[in-house]
Amino acid sequence: MPTQIPPPMLSAQLERFAVDLQLVVRERNQARAAVRKARLGTLLRLAAAAELKDDDTGVHILRMGHYAALIAAAYGMPPDYCENILYASRMHDIGKIGIPDAILKKPGPLTDEEWVVMKTHPEIGAALLDDSDVPLFQMASQIALTHHEKFDGSGYPSGLRGSEIPLSGRIVAVADYFDALTMDRCYRPALPMEKAFNMLRANACVHFDPSVVQAFFEAKHKILDIRTRINRGEEVSAT
Fold first, then answer.
1. Which of 31, 72, 140, 224 is the most exposed place for a label (fewest CB within 10 A)?
2. Could you give the count of Cα atoms lying within 13 Å of 66 in the half-sphere of its Cβ?
3. Of the candidates 180, 50, 58, which has an alpha carbon nearest to the alpha carbon of residue 124?
4. How would DSSP label each residue in 167-236?
5. Over the stretch 87-97, which tens digit does the pLDDT of each residue have?
6. Longest dimension (CA), the chain
């Protein structure tokens, strides 16, 4: 006959097993969080390096990350989505790390051959960010691949149209466009704010999802406030 464990002793053992299991799960979750944090830091630094290749100070990705989060909130997305896009959007052009400086910094128009090379950066970026089960990095890969798609189907790399483009890509397209228009570039000075607003309105239903453009204008005052604060060098917390 096998030795039977008295019920009180069995109950104590089960309690110890439960405590041990909770400890293992907690340690596993902490380890995963540490890995995610380390990977995020590495990828954000790589994204900043790619932005510096494009003859910028690197502040562009900080501004448009906040713009994207504010647009997402105005669109009605939940807080966790807004927090993810705040960071994921900053990696939208990470694929430019693979584009030659002679193309990125060219002051004049690109040749057809140069445009072919430039148009590879979404797929390079998506490949760098792919292969993860973490929602933040999944969104970052999605954004990198689709932020140059256009609402009318004339964008690249896949010619997606309308709702075929993920919402994150549609939001970042608007945020990126507005910030690019209102900053100095190697090939032109920053445009006046009202002209940028008019260009954004004019491209609703063509390049941009009109509902995302509407969300941009609903968040416009917050976006301009964030822009001013970042340009002053102020610390800006997550929106």
1. 31
2. 22
3. 50
4. HHHHHHHHHHHHHHHTS-BTTBPPPPHHHHHHHHHHTBTTTB-HHHHHHHHHTHHHHHHHHHHHHTT---
5. 899 889 888 88
6. 90
166: enclosing H helix or E strand: none
pTM tops 0.70: yes
CA–CA dist 28, 24 (Å, integer): 6
- pLDDT at 38 exceeding the cut of 80: no
Distances (CA, A) of 17 to 6, 8, 13, 22, 197: 17, 14, 6, 9, 61
What DSSP assignment string belongs to 31-91? Answer: HHHHHHHHHHHHHHHHHHHHHHHTTS-SHHHHHHHHHHHHHHHHHT--HHHHHHHHHHGGG
Distance, CA of 81 to CA of 47 (rounded, Å) = 20
What is the spatial distance between Cα 89 and Cα 158, in angstroms, rounded to a whole number? 19
Q: Structurally, what CATH architecture does the domain formed by 7-231 represent?
A: Orthogonal Bundle (1.10)
Stretch (H or E) spanning 97: none
Question: Residue type for 95, please?
Answer: G
User: At a CB cut-off of 8 Å and minimum separation 6, what does 16 contact?
Assistant: none
CA angle 71, 137, 99 (to 5 degrees): 90
Examine the pLDDT at 52 and tell me if it is beyond 70.
Answer: no
